[in-house]
Amino acid sequence: MRKLILIKHARPTVDPAIPPSRWELSGEGRSSCTPLADALRKHDIKALVSSREIKAQQTAEELSRQLPVPMEVVDDLHEHERDNVPHMPTREFISMMALVFKQQRRRVLGRESAERARERFLRALDRVMERYPEGNIGVVSHGTVISLAVNYLTGEDAYGLWRNMGLPSYVVLELPEYRLAEVVERIQGEQK
């Protein structure tokens, strides 16, 4: 059975002075790509695609090198657009994100609603699946859009998934039904 593996990027270096879309992987994030690649080997990924955000690209590049599989960067796989939101304390950010998931049609935080982010991401996934019609595909992206897509496709609780997915982590969907096959919330050696 063919699989789609949605991979949340590894841990970035948080720099409140620049937008999160421009954050790069931290040393810890780069190191966690080795156990992530080891965990993903069993899925026999034939190609990787990545969001244009630097932390996702760098995660995909590390995986591409270690697995080894081809990798490309694809439009519209980026995170829920919120680069215009100032850096917030963790507790405040989590509270705002709870509202994002609860009120998906409303633009609660950032430049797009959760519904719009999910629709954009799902359209991009459709294009990826058309481009790669055979084999298991890995998509390196971001927690919010992955959680929204998995919720839409499987009914899994979006907010709960978002809260539990570590940096890095992944979700395996079996195609063509998009059946939830596996959620790996933690990669050995990574911290939430």
Mean pLDDT across all residues, rounded? 95
Could you give the order of the helices and strands?
EHEHEHHEHHEE
Quote the CATH topology: Rossmann fold
CATH class placement:
Alpha Beta
CATH architecture: 3-Layer(aba) Sandwich
Number of domains: 1
Q: Report the count of strand segments.
A: 6
Strand count, sense and barrel status of the largest sheet are:
6 strands, mixed
Helix and strand content put the structural class at: alpha/beta
Ranges with pLDDT <50 over ≥5 residues? none
| Tally of individual helices | 6
Strand arrangement, major sheet? 3-2-4-1-5-6
The proportion of residues in beta strands is 15-25%
Radius of gyration: 15 Å
Apparent shape = globular
End-to-end span in angstroms? 31 Å
Question: What can you see in these coordinates?
Answer:
The protein has six helices and six strands. It has 192 residues and is α/β, with parallel strands linked by helices. The chain has a single domain (3-138, 154-184), classed as Rossmann fold. A six-stranded mixed β-sheet has the order 3-2-4-1-5-6, sandwiched between helices. Helix 2 links the parallel strand 2 and strand 3. Helix 1 (27-40) crosses helix 2, helix 4 crosses helix 5 (143-154) and helix 5 runs antiparallel to helix 6. The longest helix has 18 residues, at 114-131.
Main attributes of the structure:
6 helices, alpha/beta, globular, Rossmann fold, 192 residues, 6-stranded mixed β-sheet
Concise synopsis of the structure shown:
Helices cover 40% and strands 17% of the residues. By secondary structure, the chain is an alpha/beta fold.
